[in-house]
């Protein structure tokens, strides 16, 4: 499988060409969608897209870690992270695509 990262610019270009609107308008749409997802995660802690998956804010407890450069023990502070759980449909689509490539 080709290892190429999908970027915002790629998404903007795809929106622009598939819908037939200008690149600046496509960029504004993408930014609005991303802003709404982030805002909703900050307010409610969950965002779900049917047939795609869901994002959920999870609390990570304080723990001991290790500085990889020095090998010294380091305290990693408590923080929030975002977890993504793909839908069953997404998993199936991805697995089917990998099977076809082999």
Keywords, separated by commas or semicolons:
extended; two-stranded antiparallel sheet; 102 residues; 47% helix; alpha+beta; three-stranded antiparallel sheet
How would you describe this protein?
- The chain is an alpha+beta fold and about 100 residues long.
- It contains three helices and five strands; from the N terminus they run ααβββββα.
- Strands 1-2-5 form a three-stranded antiparallel beta sheet. It has a two-stranded antiparallel ribbon with strand order 3-4.
- A hairpin with a 6-residue loop joins strand 3 (about 65) and strand 4.
- Helix 1 packs across helix 2 (about 25-45).
**Count, helices:** 3
End-to-end distance: 9 Å
Report mean pLDDT, rounded to a whole number: 93
Extended strand count:
5
**Morphology call:** extended
Secondary structure layout plus pairing:
Blueprint: H1 8-19, H2 23-44, E1 46-49, E2 53-60, E3 63-66, E4 73-76, E5 79-86, H3 88-101
Antiparallel strand pairs: 1-2, 2-5, 3-4
Structure, briefly:
The protein has 102 residues and is of the alpha+beta class. It has helices spanning 8-19, 23-44, 88-101, and strands at residues 46-49, 53-60, 63-66, 73-76, 79-86.
